[in-house]
Write a structure and sequence with these properties.
about 150 residues, five-stranded antiparallel β-sheet
Length: about 150
């Protein structure tokens, strides 16, 4: 599996992409909103807890190797394990599955600001997510995808 994480400033654009893209659907979330506007407002409420944090948005894509088939339930588990391993288990999130490419993938849009106002650490995030990807490949019997540093 490959993980790609990008930090940003605005939730609305990422929500528009994740939720309105053809062949994309929500498979998990811990928020009440149903559309990009409602969800962005909800993310914004927690963001107010840390108004000086420049990049509160974390947009992650997790991709399987081409040809691998993963169920929605498995993707939910994979996404939750990634979030827990990265310290995002006390944060707002929306998880979407996209089936528009040859490789199955999900997007996780998370608030780096936790419900208690603390900020999830991004220290060593690349190394930490690589460890999680190898564990997920092993645990789900998925093809090992070399990390980008090996390519």
């Amino acid at each position: 599996m490959i993980a790609k994480a990008v930090k940003g400033k605005g939730f609305r654009g990422a929500l528009e992409y994740d939720l309105t893209k053809e062949q994309g659907r929500v498979i998990d979330k811990n928020m009440a909103g149903e559309n990009p506007r409602e969800l962005a407002a909800e993310f914004g409420e927690i963001r107010k807890l840390r108004p000086n944090l420049g990049k509160a948005v974390l947009h992650v894509s997790l991709s399987a190797a081409p040809g691998e088939i993963i169920t929605d339930d498995q993707w939910r588990e994979i996404g939750r394990r990634y979030m827990e391993g990265m310290g995002l288990d006390k944060n707002q999130f929306v998880m979407t599955r996209h089936t528009d490419t040859e490789h199955e993938h999900i997007h996780i849009l998370a608030n780096r600001i936790r419900f208690d106002g603390s900020v999830t650490s991004d220290s060593q995030d690349y190394k930490r997510q690589e460890v999680i990807m190898r564990e997920l490949e092993r645990d789900y019997g998925l093809q090992r995808v070399p990390p980008s540093l090996e390519v």
